[in-house]
Amino acid sequence: MGQGSSGTTARALRWVVALALISAALLAVPQSATAQPQLKPPPGDPVVVSLGDSYISGTAGRWRGNSDQFLFDRGGTDRAWSREDGELLGDSDRSKIYGTTAKTGCYRSNSAPIISATKSGLAGRPVNLACSGAQAANVLRASEGGVGLRGEKPQNDQLAALARTSRVNLIVLSIGGNDLSFPELVFSCISAYTLRDDPCKGKQQPHLEVELPAMRAAVAAVLADTKATMREAGYSDSDYRLVLQSYPNPLPTADEDKYDGHRRVFKWTGGRCPFTDPDMTWTGSTAIPAIAGAQAKAAQSQGATFLDLSNAFDGHELCADGTSHPLGNPKATDTEWIRFVDYTGQGDYAESLHPNFYGQQAIGICLAKAVRLAGDSTCTGVPEKGLKALTVKSR
């Protein structure tokens, strides 16, 4: 009786020891080795997203062409203008076009390219995360050195939150111009005209050549971070399309300038295109193609699709021959698709040289057509023709 009890006790102790060893072994397994739930894109209707700077956020979407008029609706061009019954002059309320971002300065318009694209056949709910003034660092996640802008988190941090709750199937990016100090370049060219100095291209071309490699690297880094953001949200690279768009040329060549041969004052007071003839030609023939070329290489390095918009505004650039300033009932066929240099206070100077209401519709149409193609593409406009004349071809 005593021996049987002793044997039973020994066996019980061995079981306790064995269970303790097993428990200890399980506790010793690294956390990374345990099974983790596999993230996947959330179900639901598709969402299309825009990231980047003012050329895609919608800055200048307030304007349907340019007009010399200052009263009332500025010749029908000011979409923010309205007049209540009993009012004499009416008022322009920018929040009608830019919403709350009229105050923050991101200038996300209700005609921004991502919105216009969905109205032109692109499937998906548009979400505009772009912000006026953004550089590459304002898109990168904070964990990758990115910084917020105008009180908002870095754009890819916003994208990460969106991608976990909504099924993102297209991301469109416009970035790089502000990393090239483009606003300073424009100011230099305006100053050259105003002060009757030498054309700005002599000084700006060397700067452009020096800064382009760094800009290309910065754009590539943003594309890489965008892909990493989506992977961490549970997406594979094939679950969505990543598109990098270039900038449309804002100026015609000197030969296509409608003020060619007119007195100098017309370009300043009427057209508000204060650029020398050599600088106008240089912009379209050299500067814009060089920027687009650097962006194309960045897209190629990261496996993104490239949309070349360099010639999308052909015949509708600022002061282009065949365009006019409407006196009412503006139309896309014969108006400029770029906001003029607003140094008289009709609107905001920050809107100057940005795609206006028609220009943003044009970019949206280009985008909607481009995503139907398998690879890179280029969009081209037609002088004195409307938005329906835009063509997109494989690049």
From TrEMBL:
The keyword Disulfide bond is assigned to this record: yes
Would you kindly state one Gene Ontology biological process term found in this protein's UniProt entry?
lipid metabolic process
The cross-references to SUPFAM superfamilies, in alphabetical order and at most eight, read: SGNH hydrolase
Cysteine-cysteine disulfides: 106-131, 189-200, 273-319
Instruction: Give the signal peptide as a residue range, or say none if absent.
Output: 1-35
GO MF entry, a single one: hydrolase activity, acting on ester bonds
Query: Quick check: keyword Signal in the entry?
Result: yes
Q: What InterPro entries does the record point to? A: SEST-like (IPR037460), SGNH_hydro_sf (IPR036514)
Keywords on this record?
A: Disulfide bond, Signal
In its UniProt entry, what is this protein called?
Answer: GDSL-type esterase/lipase family protein
Q: Which organism's genome codes for this protein?
A: Kineosporia babensis
